[in-house]
Each structure stands twice: as C-alpha cells, then as structure tokens.
Amino acid sequence: MSQVDEYSTDWSNIDLTNAHQRNLPILDGYTFEQLLLEIETGMPEITKGAIVKHFLLELRVKTETATEVFLNNLNNITKEAKKERKKP
Hints:
Helix content is 59%, strand content 0%. The protein is mainly alpha-helical. The model has no long low-confidence stretch (mean pLDDT 90).
C-alpha cells in the first residue's frame, strides 16, 4: 500500500505504538463456515482428497501472507520489543 489514510492500514509498516494496529492479527482466522462455503461454491467434486488439497492450499497462502507481513515489520517488532524490555 502506497497511500494510507486514517481508515486503512499500511501492512508493510505497522505502528506498534498504536493500540489498534498492535492488536491486528498477523495470521487471519479461518473458520469451518468459511471452508464449507468455499467447498460449496468452488469445488466441482466434493471428495476428501479435494477438500484436503484445498485446505492445504488456503493454509499455505495464509501463512505466506502472514510471513510477508511479519518480515516487513521485523524492524518495528525488534524496536518495540527492545523498548518494552527496558521498561521498569
């Protein structure tokens, strides 16, 4: 994201001193309801193998995205952790 206003988040530069941004999820949740909806609307043949393949693909995409957000913010995380450790 290149431009950020007060209602959006720059995921490449999370402000860890901001309570709202500090509580944003690194890894998105994934519910059974969401999985079932994806199966219902996007899977031509519903088999155990197809469901496992779909789930593992979704999991990989979510962890890759979370890893990217984490690495983009590693400097911020390190700085904030060191600052908090110094607190009495």
